Amino acid sequence: MTHLPGIVVTGASGRMGQMLVRTVAQSGRARLAAAVERPGHDWVGADIGEAMGGAALGVTVTDDPLEAFARAQAVIDFTAPQASVEFAALAAQARAVHVIGTTGLSDDQIAALEPAARHAVIIRAGNMSLGVNLLVGLTRKVAAALDADFDIEVIEAHHNRKVDAPSGTALMLGEAAAEGRGVTLAEAADRGRDGITGARERGHIGFSAIRGGDIVGEHDVLFAAPGERIVLRHVATDRAIFARGALRAALWGQDRAPGQYDMADVLGL
Length: 269
Ligand SMILES: NC(=O)C1=CN([C@@H]2O[C@H](COP(=O)(O)OP(=O)(O)OC[C@H]3O[C@@H](n4cnc5c(N)ncnc54)[C@H](OP(=O)(O)O)[C@@H]3O)[C@@H](O)[C@H]2O)C=CC1
Ligand SMILES: O=C(O)C1=N[C@H](C(=O)O)C[C@H](O)C1
Description:
By secondary structure, this protein is an alpha/beta fold. The chain is built from eleven helices and twelve strands. It has helices at about 15-25, 50, 65-70, 80-95, 105-110, 115, 130-145, 170-180, 185-190, 240-250, 265, and strands at about 5-10, 30-35, 60, 75, 95-100, 120-125, 150-160, 190, 205-210, 215-225, 230-235, 260. The protein has a seven-stranded parallel beta sheet with strand order 3-2-1-4-5-6-12, with helices on both faces. The chain has a five-stranded mixed beta sheet with strand order 8-9-7-10-11. Helix 7 (about 130-145) runs parallel beside helix 8 (about 170-180). The longest helix is centred in the middle third of the chain and has 16 residues, at about 130-145. Ligand LZUJQKHR binds near residues 103, 162 and 168. Catalyzes the conversion of 4-hydroxy-tetrahydrodipicolinate (HTPA) to tetrahydrodipicolinate. It is an enzyme of class 1 (oxidoreductase).
């Protein structure tokens, strides 16, 4: 089945990396072309299926991303911010579609993706699930319909290994709420309240992050006014939803013009 698009998974030993390896290998719509880990990682040189504790998949884990990208049509990358910036340059060199699920990128790191996007397709989203991307549209709509009597709060919960906050999804939801309100998130965001904060400022968009156990990912957008509250909620119970979305993006990106895209583009939302 070598005519199927070849996909490289970076950070292949990670929580999302392993889910992506399984999703691609079982999809019937793409083939796993390579699995990348960093130099010195225990899994380098091993068959990725066996390293994951299952049957061999005939793909050896490599620590040479450029060589791997050069023999694939797409790279699916859920790793760490600086790694994703570096992988973007290599994917562009190989003219491979780069699907970035990594969250926690700084503004400078996001800007650093632009040169790569002049040569190749980059699809980046803080959440690749259909449900969250629908929730983003709903949040924008509800925020546009309500005035600032409704305080907007984004509340997210994740597992205890997550390293960034607010989550990428919470920031997408905050951006959507700000767009709906006709303000920028930079001017409206309240992140990390602690101590004598003073009363809540009218029109602000607040963020709260819970970290515990094995929570896959839960997001509430709360609109709270005197006498009533509206809550928009998404609950992820299985990382497969993110992996399926990422694979869909990798396939959608084939034959697109170079540039930066997001999941709303992929899903036609
Ligand atoms: N957009 C979406 O839908 C989703 C996004 N995410 C995001 O994906 C990212 C990964 O999450 P998760 O899988 O839980 O995290 P993990 O820590 O389980 O996995 C990250 C993987 O990336 C590897 N990695 C880190 N830096 C490098 C590097 N420089 N070169 C090669 N590999 C590297 C790690 O290797 P090592 O262990 O050696 O450091 C690890 O294997 C996070 O940013 C998370 O927020 C997660 C779920 C959904
Ligand atoms: O780190 C995670 O696990 C997740 N990260 C993404 C985020 O930051 O929003 C998406 C999902 O919620 C899981």
